[in-house]
Every structure is written in C-alpha cells, then in structure tokens.
Automatic annotation (TrEMBL):
SUPFAM superfamilies the record matches: PUA domain-like, SET domain
Taxonomic placement: Eukaryota, Viridiplantae, Streptophyta, Embryophyta, Tracheophyta
Location of the protein in the cell: Chromosome, Centromere; Nucleus
Name of the protein described by the UniProt record: Histone-lysine N-methyltransferase, H3 lysine-9 specific SUVH1
Compositionally biased residues, Low complexity: 66-82, 740-752
Keyword Cell inner membrane: no
Domain Post-SET: 641-657
Domain (Pre-SET) ranges: 419-479, 1087-1147
Domain SET: residue ranges: 482-626, 1150-1294
Signal is among the record's keywords: no
Gene Ontology CC annotations of this record: chromosome, centromeric region; nucleus
Amino acid sequence: MEGNYIDKTRVLDIKPLRTLRPIFPSGNQAPPFVCAPPFGPFPAGFSPFYPFGSSQVNEQAPHLSQAQRQPQIPPQRQHQPQNLSEHSLATPSRPLRSSNGDIEPVESTLKRKTPKKRQLSTVNFESGISVAERDNGNRELVTSVLMRFDALRRRLAQLEDAEDAVNGIIKRPDLKAGSTCMSRGVRTNTKKRPGLVPGVEIGDIFFFRFEMCLVGLHSPSMAGIDYLVIKGGDAEEEPIATSIVSSAYTENDRVNPDVLIYTGQGGHADKDKEASDQKLERGNLALEKSLHRNSAVRVIRSLKEATHRVKIYVYDGIYEIKEAWIEKGKSGRDTFKYKLVRAPNQPPAFARWTEIQSWKTGKSQRRGLILPDLTSGVESVAVSLVNEVDSENGPPYFTYSTTVKYSMSFQLTQPSSGCGCSCGNKCKPGNLECPCIRKNGGEFPYTGNDILVSRKAMVYECSPSCPCLTCKSKVTQMGVKLRLEVFKTVDRGWGLRSWDPIRAGAFICVYAGEARDKSKVQQTMANDDFTFDTTRVYTPFKWNYEAGLADEEASEEVSEEPELPLPLIISAKNIGNVARFMNHSCSPNVFWQPVSYENNGQLYLHVAFFAVSHIPPMTELTYDYGVTRPSGAQNGNPVYGKKRCFCGTQYCRGSFGRSVEFLISGSDCFWFTDTMEGNFGSYTDKTRVLDIKPLRTLRPVFPSGNQAPPFVCAPPFGPFPPGFSPFYPFSSSQHTPDLNQAQNPPQHHNNNSEPSLVTPLRTFRSPNGDVEPSTVKRKITKKRTPLVCPENFSSGISVVDRENGNRKLVTSVVMRFDALRRRFSQLEDAKEAASGSIKRGDLKAGSTCMSRGVRTNTKKRPGVVPGVEIGDVFFFRFEMCLVGLHSPSMAGIDYLLVKGGGETGEEPIATSIVSSGYYDNDEGNPDVLVYTGQGGGNADKEKQTSDQKLERGNLALEKSLLRNSPVRVIRGLKEASQSAKIYVYDGLYEIKESWVEKGKLGHNTFKYKLVRAPGQPPAFASWIAIQKWKAGLPSREGLILPDLTSGVESIGVSLVNEVDAENGPPYFTYSTTVNYSESFKLSQPSVGCHCSNACKPGNLDCHCIRKNGGDFPYCGNGVLVSRKGMVHECSPSCPCSACKNKVTQMGVKVKLEVFKTVNRGWGLRSWDPIRAGSFICIYAGEAKDKSKVQQTMGDDDYTFDTTRVYTPFKWNYELGLADEDGSEEMSEEPELPLPLVISAKNAGNVARFMNHSCSPNVFWQPVSYEHNGQLYLHVAFFAMSHIPPMTELTYDYGVTRPSGTQNGNTLKATSSEQLEPDDYEWNRDLLNDDSFDLSLQQA
C-alpha cells in the first residue's frame, strides 16, 4: 500500500484466523461500533432512523482502551410464559388485535375499520426486550424479533392491498415494518461485532434485508458491506468489515460453494452520473483492512428461487479474506476484487442450496432415493421418497389423496349461500361487497403472494364454483406448491421436509384423509396413529401482529384459537397425503389453521398447515400433535399423552397424543403404568408408556402392482382400419370395477422385493368400452377373424410384469413389436397390394402383440410410467400403447374415470396427451404447451367443421386442471431425416389454465395451457436446441470443426469438446471405404442382377434377391428387416440404379457428432433420432491379412476383427408371433467367407470413434456386394433400438479367443495379453483402461 501503514493487530487481541481456531470476544468485550449507513436516499415516506439518524453521525469512534474498561453486564434471559409446560414459540402475550374474526356472514353494511395513520410513538408501547437483551441476543430472542417483524409486515401488506396505491408512493411494507421495529426497540444484537452473532445460526434464511438488520447480522438495509471503525492508543481509526451480502448486482463467482470472489462497492452508474472507478473507501477499505488483520467476515449469500418472486438471503457463516486485487469490470472501469474462503468445520448452508439445485436439474441424483414421486403424479409437484438411514423401502401402504373424504354423517346442512360475489375474475382486497371478504371480518385473509396474514378462528376461502377463477382467496385449494421429500429419520420413523425454502405464513398442505364421527372414534381408531383431532389440547402461542406495534387499538382483540362448527377428526391411516408424515414437536415450525369453503350447497372444512417462521431447505417440518384431554380434566392442569416425545427441543413436554387418564400436578413429572387412584377413580394403563415406538416407526409396506384395482384403457376415437377388429383393452368385455370390490383384489404371487414405483391413488374406472357415444353411427368395414393366441405361444411376460413394467421389459416389448412390424412390412412389400387394402404393418403388429400379451404397464395410471424414461422416442403410436405411456392408438387425449364412492360420482382425469400437430398447438416455448382440444374436425380432411364439446378428453383436461393432476405430454415431431412422424416423451406437465377461442375456421375450440414440471431432464427442449444448431442460430457450444470429414460425407460431422481444452483427436485420413490389399482380391465372383431401374421385392428372378433367401433384406424405407449370416446388396454396376438394395453404399444419412467424453476419450452421437434397424455407417479402414495381424497391429487400438467372440442377442422377429413355421429358424450369427480384420488407425471414418458397451445400442452386420468382377465385404452398423438424439452410439467390441479355447467359455478382455480359457467373466476394470478405448489415438 502507498504511504505509511501501521499494523494494529493488537487491537482486538485475537490470534490470526488462519493459524488457530478463532476466539471471538463476547458482546461486552468488543469495542463499541458505528453502523455503516445505507447508501442512497431513503424511499419516499421514510425518514432516517436509529442507528442511521443524525444523532449518531457526530459521535466520535470510541477509544479501544475505554471500551475494554466498560463494566460487564451479565446476560439476562427473556421473561418466560407463565405456564412453563405450555411454552410459547414466539413472543410473550401482550395487548394485540387482528381482524374481527366474525364467523357468520355480516350484513352488506359492514365497514372495515381502517386504523388511523399517526406518527410513530413509543409512549404507550413496551417492546418486552431489556437493554441487555437488546445488546446481546440469543436464539429465542432472534426468533421472536423476526416473527414480530414479519407479523407486522404482513399486516401492513394486508392494509396496502386493501387500498388503491397513491401515485408515487412505494408499497414496501417491509421498510415500514422495519423502521417501526427499529424505533420501538423490537430488535437485538445492537452491539456490533465481528464473527458470530448470538442467536443467529448458519443456514438461517431471510426474505428481507431488514430482518438481518434487526437481529444484528448485517446492519445496512441496502449496502453490501457492513463495517465498524476501531482505534487503539493514539493511532488513527480505521474500519474493519463485519459482514457482506453477495448479491446478484455484483460479479460474484459462485462456482465453488466454499469460495467467493466478491466485487467491491461503488462506481455504478445512476441517473446523474456515469460509471466510474471504484474507490478504496468505506466498505472497500474495510475489506482491505480485514485482509491485513486476518479478521473474519460474515457472508450472506443472496439467491433467486423459482418458488419465490423475491430474493432470499442465506447466512453462509464465517469467511476469511485471502487476497485482493483490481481488475477491469464489464464497463471498463476499475473494480476491487476480494477472494474469500469459507472457514472449515461449519455446517453447510449455501453448499446445500447448490446441491439441491443439482438434484432438481438432474445433474446429480438424490442419494438414498427410493421413488422420485411418492404421489404418482397426483400432486403437481413431485414428492420424493428417500432413505439414507437403513434398508427400509418405504412407509406402509396408503392411498394418496389430496382431499378430505366426508362420510354421510358429516354432510352439513343449511350452508350459507356461498360466495355469490360479482368480483369478476378475482376478488379484490377491501371490496366489502364480496360476501367472502365479509365473512373474513372485512379483510382479505392472504397477502398478494398467498401468505396468511393472521391466525384466526376460521379462514373462509372462495368456492371452486365462484366466478372468481383466479382469485387469491383459494390458496389451500391449489395443492402442494413446494418440492417436498418424505425421508427416513433416525429415531422417529418417516418425516417430511422441503427442498425449497418456506416463508413464514406460506401454505404447505392440508391434512387429507377420512373424516370420522367423534362418537365412533374410540371404537374404530384405537390403533390409528395417523389421526388429526381438532378437539385435542394444543399449546397456545402468539403468532399474529401486535396492535400496539401497528398503531391500532387493542379493544377488540380476536382470539387465535381455532373455532370449528363441529369436531373434525381426520384419519390418514388408509387414505392421506404428505401431511401424514409430519412428526410431532413441542417447538414446531408449522401450525394448523381451520379453513372452510362452500361448493354445491355444502360447507367443506379443512385443516391447513402454514409455516410458523422462515424454514430453510432440508429442515424437518413438524407441528404440535396436541394431547387428548380426559373427561373431567381441569383447565390449567397439564395433560400428558401416551406417546413418548423425541423432538429433543428445549421445551419438550415429554409426551403427546392420546392422553394418560389422569393429571399430574406440580413439577413432579413421572410416569405411572400400574393401577392408580386419581381424579377419575381407578385407572389401569395396560401400556408401558416408555416402551411405545414413536408415531412413524412401523415398517412401511407398499402395495405390489397386483393390489391396484383393474382398469379399462381409454378407447381410440374413430374406426379401426380395414382388416382390424377391436382387441383388448378396447373390447367391451371389461366392466367398471366397484369401489368395495376393488379393495379386495385377487392376490398374485410377486417375488419382486422392491416397492411399486406407483402408489395406488384411488379406485379407477375407465370408459365402458364404447368407442363412440351410442348416438353416433359410423361405417363398420368387413371384420376379419380376430387374432387368436396359439396354444403353443408364450409371451414370456408374467401377469405381474404385464401390469407393472421396468426399463428392461419396456425395451424388450418395443423391440419385439418393431421386429414383427418389419417382418410384416417385408411381406407386404413382396406382394401386390390388393385394391382398397391398407399397408400398415404397425397396426397389424400392434394388434398381434396386444392379443398375445406382448405388452407391459397395462395398469393405467397418471404420472410416471415404470420403465419409460423422459426423452424416449417412438416411431409408431402403437409402441406407446404397448408400454402403457398412451393407450389410444389414434386419439390425442388419454384419460381414466375416477370413482370415489358415495354420491360424489365419477369424472375423468387426463393421463397423457399427444401434441400431434393436427390441431393448432403452440409449441414455441419448449416448456409451455398451448394445447387445442379434440373433436369438431373432419377425419379425412383434418379440418375443423364444428364447435368442440366439453366431453371425453376435453372434459378430462378440464377436471385435471381443477385437481392439479399432472399430465404426461408426448410431442409429435416431423424430422427432415425421417419420412414419418416421431413422438418424443417430454415428461410431466401441469395444466395452468383453459379457455375457449375461435379457431382458424371460426369454430369454438378449447385451449389448455400446460407448463412443464421443473427438475426433469430435457427432451423436447433438446430437439429445439438441435434445430437451432442446424440453422446456425446459435452455434454449437464447444464446436471445434463444423465438419470433421472436410466434405467427404454428404452430411457434415461436427467435432465438439465441452469437457477440456483438447482440440481434437490425432491426425488420420478420412475415408468412406475399405481399402483391400492385393492379397485380399477375390476371384470368381458371381454375376449381378439384370433388373431395370429397381429390384422389386418378391421378384425371385432377381439374382440378388435369391442370394438373400428370396426376401428383400430392407423395408421400403431402408430399414434392415433381420440380422442374418450375410446381407447381399446389389452392385454399383447393376442396372437397377434406383434400387433400395444399396443402403450401405449410400454413405452416412444422419447428422453425427464426434464429441469428447468425460472418461472414454472421443465418442460418437447423432443430432437426429435413429430408428431401430436404420443404417448408421460402415467400418472404414484398411483390410488386413489375419496371418499378419499379430506382427503389425500389436499397438493398433482401432481394429475391428470379425473373428472375435461377441455376446449373442436376439433381434429378429419371433416366428410364433408372426404365425410362421419355426422349424427352419434363421441364424443371426454373422457368416463371412474369410476372416475380415480392418484397421482404422491411419485411415477410417466416424466408426472409429464408437466406444464399447456391454449393453450397446448398435450392432454390426456383414454386407457384401459385387463390382467389376470382385466381391467386396463390409462391416455395417445398424441401430439395435430407437435411439434419441445426443445419445452416445456404442457397440460390443468382442474378445479375441486364444488358441485352444473351448466354445462356451466366457473370456476376459485385456489390453495386450491373452488370458487362460478358464476365465469366465468380463474384466470390467480393464474395460475402463485407455488401451481398450477406440477413441484414444495412442496406445
């Protein structure tokens, strides 16, 4: 530094932070401080306040020696509530006031009392915080201050929402609430200090900067750097930094969660000045001084969460400043940079947020994940099931439901008239003409961002039938909006927590289940631990705002105690939602609030859960279970439950739940388990209290797939093609299952120890099998005999596997279908099509597979389909039907009917939709789909001829919108490289809104806006990105060369590296052919064909077709039909110039990319989807003499050897499935007239970059053709199954068999030596060796 610099390390008498564990001074040992004022003017209507008032400006910095001689003040505890057994979580009781709490509707003449605005005064207000507590806080006091601030802020926000904003006034209730709390002493930790702040814990979250100011974590309400000025002896004073806020407005590096590159403050442009260099003053100077003094700095990270519309601040702990420098910013001006490193051994905070984001984006998988969505798609946001404690596979069986099921005895009579409001689209706060607002005492119960303002006896919400469709007074009816997780606790069974931060007053969920009659509870629910009882005794606590703090009169105080018109007891033992997993705590972070709304002439009561205070991510959510008060119990006496409490909090009562039938008076709290004479006479407790397991510790048992009720698939709309009759599941033999019968299904043996991926939601039923309504007549073509499964054919798929699939089974079903389809297409191509017949091999193959049980996931369900992954591609709609993704073979909307029993009736909910392009679907945004309903069109002309109706699929989408039920979306795409449409499974979507509008031809159409659920891997978005790459907007990230082949291939092959700085593979000559040496020239080749223009399938006079056994080897679209010993193609010299039997000679026809892998060198993948059986490329290079290979190719890793041993697999169609004679089954093993060894070390094509896999998606097939009197052999690669874009292409490299090895022995692969024939497994470790990777250029 310039000038004289005096190191005053003796000031705080603290040893350097990087050498020893820091020992920070207690609050009374630290020197007095001067708060750093906020930079910039205060908003309109706000004046400076303590500690920013003018009275503080002229104070001189205190002398250190004087500060050290200050008398020590012993810390004082905050006064406790009067009843220690009922400890308050928040603030002590004081005169308060909330809304008037009228439960009954009031007359239209009701006037809401608006408090008079007056100057802030502290004359009649007592904060309840002593001077000592204001200087030095504790955890309880910090929590209390934050809750009191937020309660006041919510009240002020409620008042501002109720009145029209005056032009020019800033609606910032947080600033007003903060200034009020500051001026009236509702704050703590005013004694500024470096290091730890008493009562503030690492990981605490704040939604407003004023909250950090009130608890002493960071004083400035706007500035990013907080500091204090110190001086020692006669030396000049200097600042040291105490805390910084890493906001998005500065260029902070967040790649490493434990390292922060912080940009200094100042130099930003404003209205009057341009950007300038930052200056070494104030906060910047304080950071520089802290660097030299090794003084620790508190770091608060600011984050922007998708679930919140405001910034969130996370206290990330203590950091050390390691270095500082100056560099040019984006504006070209000098900026100060500071590198801060997090001190070790601190609990995770920001690092945990980073980890959660990686879980949501799919970059890393949640450790211990059992199910990605416990709700099976019922909730709009998935609820994960996780166990990181033991091997338990899940909680006990229950049916997931989002509502309360009322029995007949709970049907309420004489409900009020409902909302009946004329508010239009939504109710407006302050509108006393709205009956719903009047029922809430004239005030809107929620703020504009859906936060509950106050606890009250009852919250009245608008009805689902109210005209205010987008009203903010339906918060609890919108379902779960947080990313929750059910997890296994260490000692309390299963619990609930959130991946998202939760704001104080935010809605979490309702308690769903079955409502019970109070008079029958004792007999039917003795062993029901999943019970919520509103009649229990709950510990009272204060949560609402303080009337005195809000300058309101406290004369009409409203109780926060719930008041229900009748006892409400809900059992979630058999039916429930995530609320059943919330554990008990005597100091909970969640509270319950009764909520009611009216619908269809009935009044519905619910128990809704809201956050007591701000809850950081991954914090267990708990509420007070309460205790059942025995008959005759006196108020004021503590009541103890039979369940032992494991919450471990400071104010733990020791028990909860159903009460012990006696009272314990005084402070002697002990357990009695034998007969006792008490206030209620003789009582015998047969249960030893301490031996009872906690509420959620019983072993969960998920139902196996065969326990779910039967289903009927939604039929396709429109007639079946000629020659095809309806088949299962579209036949009329299915009936609608009854609710009671469905609960006792026949038992099947299931040896699968893993839990079902889908929790049964409820008893389902589908349409009754009628393809069209009975009033609709259609032309039925001549029916042929339905396909009947032969007695000797077995699908090989068990009943359990047919109902619930997995990845392997889904892949197998699709491959078996496509193999059969290729065979049918081959046969149809070989014969002249009869007049009027439809050549649809896919329909014939699909109906055959359906009737013969080659299918899976027949148990229809919403949400995730087992074994089907997001991004999977399908070339035929029947493929989606066979794997249970989308049942109708033609209709765009699949749905099922939900039957709930009683008088509730049934209604459809959509399970999946296909955005096919036949309707006007807006697909501009990859995560948003504006879907057009079905119907009203002409099936032949594909035009809309009439209005669409709200029935079938359209009605199902509408009901799914109201139920917040997710829908699977399949995108139909038209690829230039494919002749047919492709279907891409894009994951789960949420229906956000619906409306009716005029179509292009003037008819009414239904529109549905669907938004993709977050945290899913990209699918359709990847296709959009690829299309932009192809168009050059934008350029492919990591692109090294646009065409590695330099124009040799007709379609360019990109070279991409997104991993490191390597600029490409070693040099080689790009070639598209096999270069044969002299010794490989073959004599006496056979003659070619004499077909004109093109060889015709079925023409046995064609010499080339006869060589292929009489069958054309390819379908009409160039897809290989079957693997065989050798495929014989037509010669380039044959007269059939446009022949389809020259597929491998046409070169690469897909857009390929050579890319750098993470751990396997260079690899190959495609921008285009690749169809099963499609040709990819040949293995080009130099053909070698097998006898010379050992001497010349010892170090050649780019070798393809047809003599190696390859893992056998089945790819061809099944003769029994195709009704063909199986006596002469074709061998799939390659047969070559001589050994073929090809080296691509010096010359080759893209095939040299394909890596090995034990489960490949590409296979090789020998192909030959004749030219100029010579026979040419090639190794051609074909797709084993459908391959989505950007999927790495791999094949089996095989293993060289040593001499003397017996057939049947499995070999190990090694880099340079051969193993003994007794080795009976692949050496997986050696497969990862560089020498076994074709993508590496040097041995």
